[in-house]
Amino acid sequence: MFKKRSKFTALKAVAFIPVTAMLAMGTASAADAPKTLAELIAGAKKETTLRAMWSSSSLAGGKGFKHVVAAMNKKYGTNIKPKFTPGPSMTRMIAKVTREVKAGQPGSTDVIWGNAGGALKGGKVGILRKMNWLAYLDRQPLKWKGFDPVSPGGFSLASGGSLVGIMYNSDMVKGDDIPKSFEDVFKPKFKGKIASTPYAAGMREFGMPDVLGNDRMMAFTKRLTNQIGGLMRCGSVDRLTSGEFLMLVFSCGDQYVNRAHNSGSGEPIAYALMKEAVISHTRYGSVPVNSSSPNAAALFVAYLHSVEGQKWMWQKAGLDLPVYPESQMRKRLLAAQDAGAKVVMNSPQWLGKQGGYRKYRKSLEKILKAKRKKK
Q1: What is the reported pTM?
Q2: What is the rounded distance in angstroms from the CA atom of residue 289 to the CA atom of residue 25?
Q3: For residue 373, is pLDDT > 80?
Q4: Within a 13 Å sphere around the CA of 205, how many CA atoms are in the beta-carbon half?
Q5: In the chain, what is the straight-line distance between the N-terminal and C-terminal CA atoms, in Å?
Q6: 241-267 average pLDDT score
């Protein structure tokens, strides 16, 4: 278990070092990380409250957080009280925690729920605790070629995922009009009736060197700006269900559609994966170095890997992790792979090897936002 004295020493020390030097501090502060699940549970039993801050649309928001903490308490015999505060995007949350750690401030969250880019950056700047993640799981994940669920340095653990593709209004897009490839979105009938995102969702990953390449997706994005009617956020599903737009090219993931179908809401939304490539947009659980309940935070992440945790996450959040046999994402990825699509599990390791990801993403965003300014 983590020792309180070590935590406060780390917090005090971090106020006097630059962010670029935090990696050494982060590794040192994790020297006493629990080595087994039993040690982690023992440490969590000495903690009282677990605070979380992320978007209300992530992991079913505050209601979902409370459910998972209650289930965790029941499974492991802990008595943790949940405290949830709606927060900013995953990218902004990493920036917020970085500022807090640099200033030597207590964390505004004890556990981080983020994406592969955040896990990569958080590990590099040293704001995350190194954990013995796989030792905390009550079952071990299956192997997937080229994918390690533990981020470099042991700072984060992949815990869920969704697939990048096209989300569309199923009442208005039917039959042969349902897109199957990138080229399908350029049908004349769709001109001015489809949307993209201001942050280049999909294009930024599809354009990586070992998927479809920078040049191909840069050309695609430039063509797309003449086809779209506007920009929207991935979570603004009502702009599709209302008929304002017919489809979103591309969505951050299919979790919105999965949630709607699982709940039986009857919303007219559906999802299409592209025959050229499918990206699994992976979500990561991490513990910041200034967490006040690091053991409970790691236990929260570990619970999500249990059979019951994965089942709940699929039903309520529309996510699961493809490295477990019951995974719905796994079935879809394997089917896409068998059909000839290039399949990639997005991870900090993968992003780190691509080179120029951030610069390329910003170039795509500039093209898309120029369209919005013209309107």
Answers
A1: 0.87
A2: 9
A3: no
A4: 27
A5: 56
A6: 94
Task: Fill in the amino acid letter for 291.
Answer: S
Residues 11 and 181: their CA atoms lie apart, in Å, by: 50
H/E element, 118: helix 116-125
For residues 243-247, average pLDDT: 97
pLDDT at residue 2 in the model: 60
Closest CA to 40 of 5, 8, 72, 67: 72
Question: Rounded to an integer, what distance in angstroms lies between the CA atom of residue 71 and that of residue 312?
Answer: 10
Q: Can you give the pLDDT at residue 235?
A: 85
Q: For residue 372, what pLDDT is reported?
A: 59
Average pLDDT, the chain: 90
Cis omega (within 30 of 0) on the bond before 84? no
Nearest to 372 by CA among 229, 251, 243, 168: 229
**SS3 category, 268:** coil
Residue with tokens 């046999």: 325
Query: Tens digits of per-residue pLDDT, 98-110?
Result: 999 999 999 999 9
CB-count burial class (<10 Å; 0-12, 13-18, 19+) for 192: exposed
278, 336 in Cβ contact below 8 A?
yes
Q: Which residue has the tokens 């086809």?
A: 227
Matching residue, tokens 């950056």: 121
pLDDT greater than 60 at residue 22 = no
**Secondary element (H or E) of residue 61:** helix 61-76
Number of other CB atoms surrounding residue 219 within 10 Å: 12
Distance of alpha carbon 64 from alpha carbon 159, whole angstroms:
15
DSSP 256: H
Burial group, residue 354, by CB count within 10 angstroms (0-12, 13-18, 19+):
middle
| DSSP type of residue 143 | P
